[in-house]
Design goal:
- The protein is α+β, with helices and mostly antiparallel strands.
- The chain has four domains: 206 residues, Multidrug efflux transporter AcrB transmembrane domain (Multidrug efflux transporter AcrB transmembrane fold); 96 residues, Alpha-Beta Plaits; 227 residues, Up-down Bundle (Multidrug efflux transporter AcrB transmembrane fold); 102 residues, Alpha-Beta Plaits.
- The chain is built from 24 helices and ten strands.
- The strands form three sheets. Strands 2-3-1-4 form a four-stranded antiparallel β-sheet, sandwiched between helices. A four-stranded antiparallel β-sheet has the order 7-8-6-9. It has a two-stranded parallel ribbon with strand order 5-10.
- β7 and β8 form a beta hairpin.
- α8 runs antiparallel to α9 and α20 packs antiparallel against α21.
- It starts with a helix and ends in a 30-residue tail after the last helix.
Length: 734
């Protein structure tokens, strides 16, 4: 692989316009095809085999309208003295809104659904209308836009406050983006500029990452022809792609500038950078792709689809790093160090290295203190994971500026919290038409149910539908317990004596079921990833204790990130600082996604650091000095890379969507812990304590493992100095 990557990098640097032209052609084809033929991304949380999915399947087979999506419209007179029960004008306005909604394209029907008192609240101030749409496959963004326009028109021509929310918004509405991502990108630009001291050197990673990101995100609407990609995948994929793209480019540009400083030609330098640092990029990027694709073991289709889409972006970034970036390097030539913002000579860089060397010696003089102290600290951060509750935020966490949030608040005020998460119960009555009344009575008798608002039976299709309103909000843990109790305690006494079957569906039950499925699969998934990381690191570093130590430390850093998520999002510690208005459960799929992504990213830093440590150990046989040398020679670059990644991820915390906030905060926290506390404190401390045992491996295993030179120059031709060694080496670092 080393020689192939060398030839690839040298070719790209020698013929930059050929390579750049090929990428431009590919980009034009992909982006053009996406614009002309791309499918819309859709959200579907259906998971085959779950009880909520069986409810939808039963209603779909019966061609019931209630198998589709719904939207709620909440209406309230602007005049505080009016009610729908006492004012004919308010009632006329309500009728006009109902007529407008019923006339929208693709609307199956508009019904008046509310607990006990019907569509109007007990005080007559709030009315609720439910709009029924077809199944998600038959609705599109234009349906949501039509509804928004209808709401605006109704506000203009009536004396009513009109707000809307519900499943249609969740499935099709895309959160606003831009500000947070832009701030993260600006921070990355500043860090790279400080690290490289050159505008040109800074621009190359940014340009490559943005180019790869545009190509990757555009490809998602084409990938949808093969697998349904959720609408939130581009945003999460953009976050990951931008971070890893800039990071990978940083490693390559750093190594390229080091080779140039030794006096190599631009083409040879670019080829060697791709053969060395590029090999680590391929390794790290490959592990990210494998780990994310491993999400398929969860058995949750939307997670598998999102994993495929995000993996495609990471793969594009890896390929761009070893082909497009060396072409940029060849095009920049010796100008890569021009347009500098300051002059950073060998003396200043040497001083930075000496500072890290002093820190490494300090840690190695007190290994027990740092190993025990930092481990206890990380375990304390991880402890809140014991209170982790998976779920999904409801519309009550949206900003008050959104119509969804205002509709949610009006519904809760007029009809109780549970009306925002109705339970859709599908009953197979093909062999027993008389079981419905008994089920309704039993459901209404449950303490977690406020009431049954509608029931219908269709003997021809053999399906009955019961809509029940819980007493608690959709994201409340008591609602999940109500769903579980209906299935395990309320239904069995009736259905055990009947051939009928009943399934609890609806968005609230679906989210609870998905969270349960992921909880069941999370531990086996983590175990599989840890075992894979152990095997890969054993292959690369020919050691048993080093991979074992890496696996444990990765678990600690990711566990600490999980703990921070629990403290902020579940417990509400500092939630105002990130613009979160209320506490929310941890989104069910985030822990598994985070683990898959962070596994690959932490492997990147691990390989970069340990390859230098092992190289020095093989040369000197001195474990302590090799640890100190490895830390001092890599800490600058790891710090720069981590700061970039943290900046990009933290930028997404500024968005309005709580799901994106969780991803951003979780990933930023984990990278911070991994690249600072773990990489520059725990790693040297534990490697000092283990001594020469770090590099022990059974003889029989050493003989059968293939040799992998992950970051060396073995097999490459001897470098030819074209101008003699440069006077001022220019490694990156902050």
């Amino acid at each position: 692989m080393t020689q192939n990557l060398y030839r690839m990098g040298k070719f790209a640097a020698s013929r930059p316009w050929t390579v750049i032209g090929a990428w431009l052609v590919i980009a034009v084809i992909v982006i053009g095809a996406s614009s002309a033929f791309g499918e819309e991304l859709e959200d579907s949380f259906d998971v085959p085999g779950l009880d909520s999915a069986q409810a939808v399947d039963l209603l779909s087979q019966a061609q019931s309208d209630q198998a589709g999506l719904t939207a709620r419209v909440l209406v309230q007179p602007l005049d505080n003295g009016e009610t729908f029960l006492s004012s004919s004008r308010a009632q006329a306005d309500l009728d006009a809104v109902r007529t407008t909604l019923a006339g929208l394209p693709n609307v199956v029907g508009v019904s008046e659904v509310g607990p006990k008192s019907g569509a109007i609240s007990a005080d007559g101030r709030i009315a609720m209308l439910q709009i029924q749409y077809p199944v998600i496959e038959d609705v599109g963004l234009e349906d949501l836009e039509n509804l928004k326009v209808a709401i605006e028109d109704s506000r203009a021509v009536t004396g009513l406050q009109v707000e809307a929310g519900g499943e249609l918004f969740f499935a099709l509405d895309e959160p606003e983006t831009g500000v947070g991502e832009m701030l993260g990108l600006i921070a990355a630009v500043v860090i790279l500029l400080l690290a490289f001291g050159s505008v040109i050197a800074m621009g190359l990673p940014i340009g490559m990452a943005l180019f790869g990101l545009a190509l990757g995100v555009s490809s998602m609407s084409l990938i949808t022809y093969l697998i349904e990609i959720p609408s939130w995948a581009p945003q999460i994929g953009g976050m990951i792609g931008l971070g890893v793209g800039i990071d990978y480019a940083l490693f390559l540009v750093t190594r390229h500038r080091e080779f140039l400083a030794r006096g190599l030609s631009v083409e040879d330098s670019a080829g060697r950078a791709v053969a060395t640092a590029g090999q680590a990029v391929v390794f790290a990027g490959g592990t990210v792709v494998i780990a994310i694709l491993g999400l398929a073991v969860a058995g949750v289709p939307f997670m598998t689809a999102a994993g495929v889409a995000i993996s495609a972006i990471v793969l594009i970034m890896v390929v761009a790093s070893v082909t497009l970036l060396p072409a940029f390097l060849g095009l920049a030539g010796s100008w890569i160090n021009r347009l500098g913002i300051h002059r950073r000579g060998a003396e200043s860089h040497a001083q930075v290295g000496k500072n890290w060397e002093r820190w490494g010696r300090h840690v190695c003089r007190h290994p027990w203190t740092y190993a025990v102290g930092v481990t206890v600290f990380l375990l304390a951060l991880t402890a809140p994971v014991l209170a982790l509750r998976l779920g999904f935020p409801d519309e009550g966490v949206q900003p008050e500026s959104t119509t969804q949030r205002r509709a949610y608040d009006l519904a809760a005020e007029g009809f109780g919290d549970g009306v925002n998460g109705p339970l859709l119960i599908a009953v197979d009555i093909s062999e027993d038409e008389f079981v419905v009344d008994a089920l309704v009575a039993a459901i209404e008798g449950d303490p977690g149910v406020a009431g049954v608002v509608s029931q219908s039976s269709d003997p021809a299709s053999g399906v009955a539908t019961i809509v029940a309103i819980p007493t608690t909000s959709p994201q409340d843990i008591e609602t999940v317990r109500t769903v579980d109790r209906l299935r395990s305690e309320v239904f069995p006494p009736i259905l055990d004596a009947s051939p009928a079957t009943a399934h609890v569906g609806g968005q609230t039950a679906n989210f609870a079921d998905v969270a349960g499925r992921i909880s069941d699969r999370l531990a086996p998934f983590i175990l599989a990833v840890v075992v894979l990381s152990f095997m890969l690191l054993t292959l690369v570093f020919r050691s048993i204790l080093v991979p074992l130590k890496a696996a444990v430390l990765n678990l600690l850093s990711i566990g600490a990130a999980y703990g921070v998520l629990v403290m902020v999002f579940q417990w509400g510690w500092g939630k105002e600082l990130i613009g979160l208005e209320t506490t929310v459960p941890i989104v069910s799929f985030i822990p598994m996604f985070m683990f898959a992504i962070l596994f690959g990213l932490s492997m990147d830093y691990e390989v970069f650091l340990l390859s230098r440590v092992r190289e020095e150990y093989l040369a000197t046989g001195d474990n302590d000095s090799s640890v100190i040398h490895g830390l001092s020679s890599t800490a600058r670059v790891i710090t720069s890379a981590a700061l970039i990644m943290i900046s990009v991820f933290a930028g997404f915390v500024l968005g309005n969507d709580p799901v994106t906030k969780m991803f951003g905060l979780g990933l930023a926290t984990a990278i911070f812990v991994d690249a600072t506390i773990v990489r520059v404190v725990l790693v040297p401390a534990t490697m000092k304590l283990m001594g020469d045992a770090n590099w022990w491996i059974p003889g029989w295993l050493d003989r059968i493992l293939p040799t992998v030179d992950i970051d060396g120059e073995a097999g490459l031709p001897e470098p030819v100095l074209v101008n003699g060694p440069a006077v001022e080496p220019v490694p990156a670092g902050v």
